[in-house]
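Let us practice reading a record.
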Amino acid sequence: MAALYIALLHFPMRNREGQVVVTALTSLDVPDIARTARTYNVKKFYIVHPVESQRRIAMRLRDFWVSEEELPTRREALELVAIREDLEEVYQEIAQEEGVPPLVLGTTARAHLLPYPKLAWEEARRISGERPVLVLFGTGHGMTDELLAACDALLPAVRAGGYNHLSVRAAVAIILDRLKGEEP
């Protein structure tokens, strides 16, 4: 698989009434997703938040674990974390580092209900070997339709239909396993 990047987005998200909101950073997301990212050889885990005070909190969390000498494996994972203000900055950074723009894949529990291009897991694994991939994860009640429509394609929902409201930490772990699985 080519270079894999993930981004945890906090805007534009939907709340339970469907309104567009900025969500708050959840302190558990930072170390937990970083550990999952490291386990699956993600090149960088971006936390994208438009509010400066929330970015400062994310930086303090990252810096705390990176400086913690008693937990070297946690430090190794947290070194993958990069905090950025907006998604365009992430996109440009990856394109510059990789020499080619990333394939942007969206995630949503509503993938089967939306009219946007979709990839099956097998196809996503195949395509992701060809160029860098950026997988977007939303918070709150998910990304807005406009943001999902801007993705190159959507990955399948973890579970289509019925109750489907996983924590983003759980969704990241499941989706990375489905994308990467047991790589050699």
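A brief commentary: Residues 10 and 24 are 7 Å apart (CA to CA).
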